[in-house]
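## retry 2 of 3
previous attempt timed out at serialization; input unchanged, resubmitting
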Amino acid sequence: MILYYILAWVGIHLLSAYGCSRLKERTLLRLTLIFKPRDFEGAGWFKVLAVRRWKSWFPDAGGWFRNGISKKEIGLNCHGGRTRFLAELNRAELCHWLQLIPSPFFILFGGGGVGWWMGAYGIAFNLPLILIQRYNRKRLLGIMRGDEPIMHSSLGVVHLKHKDRGSPPP
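## retry succeeded, writing output
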C-alpha cells in the first residue's frame, strides 16, 4: 500500500510539473493578480519565518523540463528579464499549489497513519516552496516598482544602481 502512495506522489509531482511547464509566459503573467502579495505578507511575515535564510537550501527545478529555465539564468537587469522571472515565479507557485491539493485526500481516504503521513508529506514538501515563491515575488515586484534596489542575493541577481543616488546602495 505504501508503494502505491509513493508512486501516486511521484505521478502527482511529475504531472503537475509537466503541465505547468507547458503554460505560455502570457498565461502565467495573467496569474500575477491571483498570486499577488497579500496585506498580511508584510516584511515581518517573511522575517519571522526566516525565508531568506533557508530558501537557498531548495533546488530550482525550473530547468528540469524541456523549454524550462532555471531562475538563476534569467537576467534581472532589464525589464524583460524581470517579467520572465515573474512568470516563472507564477509557474512555480501554481505547480506547488496543484501538488498540495491532493494532501487532504491522502489524509481522508488513505487509511490510518499512512494516510496521515502521506498527507503531511504533501504539505511539508510544498508549503516551504510556495513560501519561497511568494517571498521572491514580493521582492521582485518591489524591484519592478523601484521600491527596492537590486543587490546580490539569493535571487541570483545582478547589482543595479540605487534609484535615488545613481550608485549602488551602501
